[in-house]
Specification:
Blueprint: E1 3-8, H1 12-23, E2 28-34, H2 37-46, E3 51-55, H3 63-67, E4 75-80, H4 86-91, E5 96-99, H5 104-130, E6 132-137, E7 140-145, E8 149-155, E9 158-163, E10 168-172, H6 175-181, E11 187-191, E12 194-197, E13 203-204, E14 208-211, E15 214-217, H7 220-232
Parallel strand pairs: 1-2, 1-3, 3-4, 4-5
Antiparallel strand pairs: 6-7, 8-9, 8-12, 9-10, 11-12, 13-14, 14-15
């Protein structure tokens, strides 16, 4: 995967350093470098990039202010010499926050995080569009249709798919990896050991999801998200 990116920094040396880092990172493609958010505004709103390296303290328009008007699909890595902006940066939904002077090692950690984020997004969009996944089971790749899944149970290093047909498919993978690939909120984590296909739920009993004689717990860590989903689909 190649990520399109841009740089906004009013310090020529800092911008030049980031340019050199981008050029030697094979999965990044630089679309532009700007010395202020104002000069970048038209280009990046009409032709958004996937990843933006954005300085925070700049004249006319700060990075924090500019982040609020960017297209949602653009992910931001803030770059700054001032640590007091860290909290504001993450409130602006930044993917990461780099302190100047920036080493290539730290730059690479942040861009790897961006690559992982976009890779997950592509997998989610693909599974949502195609409505199936291939999973490894023993020595085979088995097709699992999303519409056939009732729920998924985590078993240490394995997961078990419970299908409408009554079939169970076991595959070697983590719950987190699987959760990242499934369309959200159609599939919700209700417990560290369970992911539920919410459109298949027929009843909720005392905050437990019921599938026949199987009761799926909803733990405190996931309760708010599950309740929010239920509230959106409940008539009272």
């Amino acid at each position: 995967m190649i990520l399109s990116c841009a740089i906004i920094d009013d310090e020529p040396l800092a911008a030049g350093l980031l340019e050199s880092y981008v050029k030697k990172t094979p999965y990044l493609e630089l679309k532009g470098t700007y010395n202020s958010a104002v000069t970048a505004m038209r280009d990046l709103r009409e032709n958004p990039v996937q990843l933006l390296f954005l300085d925070i303290q700049m004249p006319e328009l700060s990075g924090i202010e500019f982040a609020k008007i960017l297209p949602r699909e653009t992910k931001i890595i803030f770059t700054t010499a001032f640590s007091q902006y860290a909290i504001e940066g993450f409130r602006a939904n930044a993917l990461d926050y780099l302190m100047k002077p920036i080493s290539y090692q730290d730059f690479l950690k942040s861009t790897d995080k961006a690559l992982d984020w976009f890779s997950v997004l592509v997998k989610q969009e693909t599974s949502k569009r195609d409505r199936f996944l291939f999973v490894k089971s023993e020595y085979k790749l088995l097709r699992v249709d999303l519409d056939d899944i009732l729920y998924i149970e985590g078993l240490k290093d394995y997961v078990r798919f419970y299908l409408e047909s009554g079939e169970k498919v076991v595959s070697l993978m983590s719950m987190k990896r699987l959760e990242d690939c499934l369309p959200h909120p159609e599939f919700l984590r209700t417990h560290r050991s369970y992911i539920v296909h919410m459109s298949k739920v027929q009843s909720i009993d005392r905050l437990r999801v019921v599938f026949g004689d199987q009761y799926i717990p909803v733990s405190d860590n996931y309760k708010d998200e599950v309740m929010s989903y239920l509230d959106q689909h409940t008539l009272v």
